[in-house]
């Protein structure tokens, strides 16, 4: 029983990464109808950002946690203004290809500069473990879980309790109708994109002390995150976050009980969910 | 998914067609170099996870061997026209298969070198046999290349899973790490490593308490690290058989879960300098592993490593050194045979005993084409004792050639 609880908790920690990444993808898709394939690359850039800050400026983890997501969010808004916006009116495939290309370029540039091996990162802010009653767990990983839950909750509160949130949700779910009410949804597109990018960067910084930092870390992860978003329902913020945590647990327990299935379990679940609910668990079917 | 599948099917179909049309390849007159040119092909991972271990460095090492060969023989060389070509196999067996055919058939490669990733290396061995051209594997660890999949055209030059297991698995067990929990990546390399480590640990009087396959690649090993202390009996050693970025993940998380404090030591199957750098030499200090060679081994090694560094800006891995060694002996054999015809070159190589800066007390066994040579049990140096950047390795024990490698496998039938 203890090991079951321990593994469930462990699954929630990796689920936190999925949730943060899926949350960003979901708001971006909701607002812009862009399937942002560069999301994994941003996660990777976030982790590299922490490494570079530590190496070149001697700034530790807390600075990275603050500065890197901000810097990448700004870069994201520029990207939206300069490139993504121009393709928005065309077939969504164009933006898909654009972001995919951006991801490849980022990955290759980093590989040219740093090689394909992992980068050292020594600035873990917590060491040791914390006693959680039935079991103990690395302090840093508890922190990661706390941050991801707090961020997801905060986003949910903003979306449900504030005027801005109402507009974003309305624009996400019924863009035409929202515009018909005289609300300028275009104003919100750029900040929402920047915010989504910032979330992915945040996840990357959080990953640096506990995961290998290398140019392929985003590419390996993003496929799973896309499955998470599809299971949760494309564009559904709540669904994406929930699916993120569920998949994290499923993988951890899968690793324990049926190791061979642990990687495919996500895609099996996706297949089952799509058979029953083609728009994902919390997605709404769109009628053209 | 469907797309990959159909691409794979297409590749296989094209491969089959090529094999059909190719016949036995061009027949060269004896005593002559075909097309008046020797072509050495380096088939490697040019941009993926093994690009630093092999990759561009391997291409450079083979080029270095060619340059040295030309310098040595001048106009007495069998031909002055020696070319090095390269291709990227992306660590995928189907891509390796297509690229190897392309290099042998269209680009007229006389011998291929390197090829990291065991599944890709096995694919290339099959193509080498069908094309009747030579292949020198230096980068893949599978023992199948000199075992079940051995053939007259394939040579195993540097290391294999048996060697790694005999070093680390047996020695760590003898030193008191009796109970092992092994985690291994779930593909050809990891499966083979796991089997060889299990045999080595048991042979040294140890027990494998549990062994788990882990997804490949993966960034989260927490499940296994959490499970380890609860196993009965409690393991003394966590045997991590991952490589590259996966290994960095394991070590980082091993640190966080404080398994060392819980009495579980870390033993690593295959470790490269780039991995030590990634997780920090201080964290790994004292960790034992087995290697075929390292650049700071002695004066000969250092001298070659200095030349390599001049050309590439970095220190060589054992794979780079093995590529140079294999390419040099291949060219020498062509020189002696006076032809690049694979069968004649083979006759000069088989059974050869040699010593070079890479392989000491080496024998190229004719019966399975395995090069056996001294291997080294080493440990990660205390960073305070390092004499320069990149000086990570300290010798613990030399494993003599006949102990380091397995006897020829009964599964190997050359024909």
From TrEMBL, chain A:
The keyword Membrane applies. It is found in: Cell membrane. It is a multi-pass membrane protein. The chain crosses the membrane at residues 12-30, 60-80, 92-110, 140-159, 188-209, 221-249, 256-276. Keywords: Amino-acid transport, Cell membrane, Membrane, Transmembrane, Transmembrane helix, Transport. The keyword Cell membrane applies. It comes from the Bacteria. InterPro entries: ABC_transp_permease (IPR001851), BCAA_transport_permease (IPR052157). Belongs to the binding-protein-dependent transport system permease family. LivHM subfamily. This is Branched-chain amino acid ABC transporter permease.
Automatic annotation (TrEMBL), chain B:
Residues 38-381 form the Leucine-binding protein domain. CDD domains: PBP1_SBP-like. The keyword Signal applies. Keywords: Signal. InterPro entries: BCAA_transport (IPR051010), Leu-bd (IPR028081), Peripla_BP_I (IPR028082). Gene3D superfamilies: 3.40.50.2300. The keyword Transmembrane does not apply. Belongs to the leucine-binding protein family. This is Branched-chain amino acid ABC transporter substrate-binding protein.
């Amino acid at each position: 029983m203890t090991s079951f609880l321990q593994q469930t908790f462990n699954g929630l920690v990796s689920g936190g990464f999925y949730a943060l990444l899926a949350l960003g993808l979901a708001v971006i898709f909701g607002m812009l109808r862009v399937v942002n394939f560069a999301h994994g690359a941003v996660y990777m850039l976030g982790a590299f950002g922490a490494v570079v800050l530590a190496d070149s400026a001697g700034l530790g983890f807390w600075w990275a946690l603050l500065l890197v997501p901000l810097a990448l969010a700004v870069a994201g808004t520029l990207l939206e203004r300069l490139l993504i916006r121009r393709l928005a009116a065309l077939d969504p495939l164009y933006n898909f290809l654009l972001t995919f290309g951006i991801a490849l370029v980022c990955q290759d540039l980093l590989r040219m500069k740093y090689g394909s091996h992992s980068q050292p990162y020594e600035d873990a802010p917590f060491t040791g473990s914390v006693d959680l009653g039935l079991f103990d767990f690395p302090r840093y990983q508890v922190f990661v879980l706390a941050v991801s839950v707090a961020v997801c909750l905060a986003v949910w509160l903003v979306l449900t309790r504030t005027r801005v949130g109402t507009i974003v949700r309305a624009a996400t779910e019924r863009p035409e109708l929202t515009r018909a009410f005289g609300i300028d949804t275009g104003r919100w597109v750029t900040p929402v994109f920047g915010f989504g990018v910032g979330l992915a960067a945040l996840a990357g910084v959080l990953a640096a002390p506990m995961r290998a930092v290398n140019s392929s870390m985003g590419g390996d992860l993003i496929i799973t995150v896309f499955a998470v978003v599809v299971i949760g329902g494309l564009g559904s913020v709540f669904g994406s976050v929930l699916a993120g945590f569920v998949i994290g647990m499923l993988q951890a327990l899968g690793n324990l009980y049926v190791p061979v299935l642990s990687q495919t379990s996500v895609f099996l679940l996706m297949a089952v969910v799509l058979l029953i609910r083609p728009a994902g668990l919390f997605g709404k079917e769109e009628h053209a | 998914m469907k797309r990959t599948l159909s691409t794979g099917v297409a590749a296989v179909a094209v491969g089959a067609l090529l094999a059909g049309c190719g016949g036995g390849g061009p027949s060269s007159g004896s005593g002559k170099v075909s097309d008046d040119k020797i072509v050495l092909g380096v088939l490697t991972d040019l941009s993926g996870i093994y690009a630093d271990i092999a990759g561009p460095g391997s291409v450079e090492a083979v080029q270095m061997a060619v340059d040295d060969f030309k310098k040595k023989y001048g106009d007495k060389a069998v031909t002055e026209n020696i070319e090095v070509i390269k291709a990227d196999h992306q660590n995928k067996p189907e891509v390796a298969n297509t690229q190897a055919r392309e290099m042998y058939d269209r680009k007229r490669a006389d011998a291929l070198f390197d090829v990291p990733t065991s599944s890709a290396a096995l694919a290339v061995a099959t193509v080498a046999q069908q094309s009747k051209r030579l292949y020198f594997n230096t980068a893949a660890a599978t023992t199948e290349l000199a075992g079940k999949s051995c053939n007259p055209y394939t040579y195993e030059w540097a290391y294999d899973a048996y060697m790694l297991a005999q070093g680390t698995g047996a020695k760590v067990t003898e030193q008191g790490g009796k109970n092992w929990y092994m985690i291994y990546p779930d593909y050809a390399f990891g499966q083979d490593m796991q089997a060889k480590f299990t045999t080595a640990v048991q042979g040294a009087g140890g027990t494998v308490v549990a062994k788990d396959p882990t997804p490949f690649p993966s960034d989260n090993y927490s499940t296994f690290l959490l499970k380890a202390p609860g196993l009965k009996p409690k393991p003394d050693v966590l045997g991590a058989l991952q490589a590259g970025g996966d290994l960095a993940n394991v070590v980082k998380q091993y640190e966080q879960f404080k398994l060392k404090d819980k009495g579980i030591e870390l033993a690593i199957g295959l470790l490269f300098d780039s991995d030590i750098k990634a997780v920090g030499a201080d964290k790994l200090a004292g960790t034992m592993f087995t290697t075929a060679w390292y650049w700071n081994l002695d004066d000969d090694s250092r001298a070659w490593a200095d030349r390599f560094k001049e050309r590439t800006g970095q220190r060589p891995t054992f794979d780079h050194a093995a590529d140079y060694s294999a390419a040099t002996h291949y060219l020498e054999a062509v020189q002696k045979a006076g032809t690049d015809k694979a069968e004649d070159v083979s006759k000069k190589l088989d059974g050869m005993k040699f010593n070079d800066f890479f392989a000491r007390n080496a024998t190229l066994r004719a019966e399975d084409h395995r090069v056996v040579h001294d291997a080294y049990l080493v440990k990660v140096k205390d960073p305070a004792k390092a004499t320069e950047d990149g000086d990570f390795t300290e010798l613990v024990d030399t494993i003599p050639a006949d102990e380091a490698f397995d006897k020829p496998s009964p599964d190997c039938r050359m024909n």
